[in-house]
């Protein structure tokens, strides 16, 4: 058991039969009345974020959640195969576990897997990945004042919008949260 005094970002809780992780918290001591704690909680199964206010000193159940580093090995038939980097145990997860993030996975990439009692809950990709451009449309400059973008297919098969100067073989940095081009990486 933990109390609101133990709250910190990243703390995992069991609340109303669900597993949550504290994303943000704030201790508030108003001039009148009792102190309380405002929190933003992220559901570890659905990814939904909720707001919850707790009275100061209120007890909560702390969840036994682990973050494990796992390496992506390969995909076969809609199933993703991973290896734990500490124990070298191999296991598989359905694509849906990554919630669309599988579009940025390449062999050998290490990601963070959140588990509860040995059961995988959610996987977290790095915020930025570097991927090679497999196919890019030729850049044709028109008479426009704004930035020009074209479609490019990355080595994972994902299509992103990139500036006209990007060519096949270039390596680009992509934000996995938004799916947007960030910059060209020089190698």
The SSE order reads: EEEEEEEEEEEEEEEE
Return the domain count: 3
* End-to-end CA span: 50 Å
Q: Widest sheet: strand order?
A: 1-6-2-3-4-5
State which percent range the strand residues make up.
over 45%
| Counted beta strands | 16
Tell me the number of helical segments per DSSP (H or I, 4 or more residues long). Answer: 0
Summing up helix and strand content along with how strands pair, one would put the structural category as mainly beta
Q: Fill in the CATH topology of the largest domain.
A: SH3 type barrels
Uncertain runs are none
Biggest sheet descriptor: 6 strands, antiparallel
As an assembly, this protein is single chain
Please bin the fraction of helical residues.
under 10%
Mean of pLDDT: 87
User: Rg from C-alpha positions?
Assistant: 21 Å
> What is the CATH C level class of the largest domain, in words?
Mainly Beta
- Give the second-level CATH assignment, the architecture of the largest domain: Roll
Globular, elongated, flat, extended or rod-shaped: what is the shape? Answer: flat
């Amino acid at each position: 058991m933990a109390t609101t005094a133990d709250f910190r970002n990243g703390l995992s809780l069991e609340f109303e039969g669900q597993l949550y992780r504290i994303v943000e918290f704030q201790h508030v001591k108003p001039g009148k009345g009792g102190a309380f704690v405002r929190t933003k909680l992220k559901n570890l199964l659905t990814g939904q974020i909720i707001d919850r206010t707790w009275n100061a000193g209120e007890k909560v159940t702390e969840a036994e959640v682990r973050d494990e580093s796992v390496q992506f090995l390969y995909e076969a038939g809609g199933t993703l195969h991973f290896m734990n980097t500490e124990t070298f145990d191999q296991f598989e997860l359905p694509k849906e576990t990554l919630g669309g993030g599988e579009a940025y996975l390449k062999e050998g990439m290490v990601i963070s897997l959140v588990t509860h009692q040995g059961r995988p809950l959610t996987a977290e990709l790095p915020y930025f990945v570097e991927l090679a451009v497999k196919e890019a449309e030729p850049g044709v400059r028109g008479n426009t004042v704004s930035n020009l973008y074209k479609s490019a297919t990355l080595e994972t098969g994902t299509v992103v919008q990139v500036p006209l100067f990007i060519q096949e073989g270039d390596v680009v940095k992509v934000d996995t949260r938004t799916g947007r081009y960030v910059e060209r990486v020089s190698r």
